[in-house]
Amino acid sequence: MKIKKQLQEIRFFLAEWYRTLDTWLLWSIAGLIVCGIFLTFSASPVVAERVLKTQDTFYFVKKQLFFLIPSIGLMLGVSMLSPKQIRRLAFIVFTASLIALVLTLVVGMEVKGAKRWLYFPGFSIQPSEFMKPAFAVICAWIFASGRLIDKFPGIRIAGCIYLTTIMLLLLQPDIGQTLTISTIWGCQLFLAGISVLWVIALLGIGIFGVIGTYFIFPHVQSRIDRFLNPETGDVFQVRTSLEAFHNGGWFGRGPGEGIIKGKLPDAHTDFILAVAAEEFGFFLCAFLIFLFAFIIFRGFLIMSKEKNLFNMLAVAGLLTQFGVQAFINMASTLNLIPTKGMTLPFISYGGSSLLSLAFGFGIILSLTRRHPTQGGLE
Amino acid sequence: MPFKKKKETFFYVGQEIPVSGGDRYRFLDKATVSALKTGRLRMLFVAYVFLLAFLILGGRLFEQTILKKNINPPRRQLSLTDLPVKRADIVDRNGTILATSLPTVDLYIDARHVPHPQQLAEDLISVLPDLKKETILKQIATKSSFRFIKRNLTPKEQYAVNRLGYPELNFIDGEQRIYPQSHLFSHLLGFTNIDNKGITGLEKAFDEQLTQDTTPIRLSVDTGIQNIVRYELEKGIQKFNATGGAAVVMNAKNGEVLALVSLPDFDPNRASTRTNQNLFNKATLGVYEIGSVMKLFTVTMGLESKTITPDDKVDATEPLKYGRFRITDYQGKNRFLTIPEVLIYSSNIGSAKIALAMGEEQQRAFLERFGLLSPLSFELPEKGRPMYPDPWREINTVTIAYGYGLAISPLHVASAVSAIVNGGLYHHPTVLKGKNDTEPATQVISPQTSRIMRFMMRAVVDIGSGKSANIKGYLVGGKTGSAEMQDENGRYVKGTLRTSFVGAFPMDDPKYVVFVMMENPMKRKEDWYFNTAGWNATPTGGRIIEAIAPQLGIIPKEELEKPAYIEVAYSQYKKKK
Question: d(Cα B478, Cα B506) in Å, to the nearest integer?
């Protein structure tokens, strides 16, 4: 009898969860994940064969599918949490990530001139990936508190957290993550209602910061130079990528018929949209862009009716992270901006990135659930 | 708010009725409401920024995929750089295809991952019975991503292999060289290896041109003429049980080769028909002592150097003693011979005396002018280097005068005799149609000497040793030669002869030169146990001329009017009879 009752409770809980969940968001993510599986099947075997020299051509596909199951579990699990639990989880993850970030500087192995990964027997993780969603939640919490609680120095605390984080990221160095974190933080600050004068001032500082990186980091300088002036350097990757788009046309050349995936080393990660364009054409790529845009607008739409400031700021921050990451990836593939190694959310190969995105999106799903919450911090 | 929204007073069935005028924040405190309102407004701004960004992305995508669409996107290429693109055809002077390429497929295995090698090998053999199991297993054991299993599969075989359904078995487009004329042009064309690279003959000589330019290479040879020449030579070889032979037909006016045959030959389509013996090109690579045919050159150089005149007489009453050598005439006349008679009766003594009168230096210089002391300038890679004595002593001058001591290829003879009969112009031989139209020829003898030689050669065929090639109406002229063959130690073997005949026609204005050579024709009872050239090579040459002359558009003519020095020989000949 007891078991039956417990089962019923679980059923109740799940039914309640699904009823309050925004299914549009859920199924859009499912759509992205399915597209991602297909594109990994298409793009990664050639890379596996060429780069890893392995006989197991489905190495990347298997690894990605292996990560997909825990990722989906994590996303759904997190989406079942209450905002309070989300904040606690985020606090734990954020603290752990900060410690891990410090560790990467000490014991991390250097890959292509940067220390970003922590190596464990059998697998490796990139702490900065997990930090992003946790950072968004923590900052949202602090910004909301600052706005709603008298004499709570929200902006200052958030500023300290922000500066600590980007300092650690710049030491690796990881310009891409710094940029993402800065965008999240800036967006939340903006939404939290600072005065327009401050916004303009901070935008100026941001632009100054970007120009600063150009002079401080030689690899950033070289990439921007090559983007602005393609004749001066090696633009093999972007040219090959654009060639893939030209070859694609409306419907593409058909699954597996692409040729550029044999030339680009990052065909399965940073340049997966180029593979999609060559093999499946304009329609699939347009569909992918639409899906990303849809998810972002759906999230903002739900949040426009939100009565809880923390929820609003957290979701807006996470959507910004998601949107900026998608935009930077697709825009570099299309040579709209200088190339920046950033994965396409839920599409590109990469276990760490997939898990962290699932974590972040679980938070979005959780905070966008229909709830009778009043304003404030509960 | 500047303007208030009009309040709805009417609600549809099922429409949510807003509680208290639609104020969604009615239970919240003022600070929260103001924060939420600001947030909402600014979120709208952020959303617009994103909308703009994604619209730009969509536009750029449309621009790159649709507006800049590649009409002919590059095709995926396997990284096999050695496989040639289509190899061009080789055609004869009339455009008949002699060599062409057909698209085929090659079967290869990706041996990196073969779960059941034994099963695969057995299944493969069941559809391709000519394969061996060990070979297949050996290829699988390499673990290589690309190993050929079988080249040039038929569509039926490809279907059968596909039906086996092994993903590790794959096909790539191949190409097979086909020689529709089979044996006919074997030595001339040569053949390609399994990767379609020319390794002998013209396939080797023009390998680069054939793979880089798709326009066919047009040869000067004529399939019809070649067919006749090969047929007659083969028939002659069979009839006299000879071990082999060679024949060349050349346009005497420009050095273009119309037919070039070496027997035995092979089928270039089938590697299994090749042996060391039949691969050897006797017409261009083999160099031979040609016996009495050399006397043509001896007399020509005598006349050209003014050592002799056609009216001179040579004493051939007694054998010529030279050191330990005793030079005799075959069926000698034992009398004084006129210069035409030296050729008509093929007098060794007469020839030797002419050469001695001239001296070795002049002889050598003259032979050099006729290209007989160096390899030919010719398209085939298989070219023989003439063999001659070094140092060149007086005795060599004597023997070379009647055909021993200098070894040259049949094509050397045809080219040099063309110059003798055509008015004295030496053309480098060629198999390319029209090539010599632009190449200048060398005047090697005077037209007068050439004219005298034509009369003499005509007499040789009319009343001398070449009678069996005297085809009525075509005014054939020529010279026969029989030389004893050497064994592998270089010793002459009695009774084994290499017989040859060189002919030109029509002798008033020779258009074509024919050279026929036979190796070791047997003595036959029907020929009264003779096996010299007059009994085998010469009649074969005659039959060739008889068959090709009409095809080449030669109109039968009246006999030439003979000059006095020829008339003398004819009257002697009639008296004897």
Answer: 11
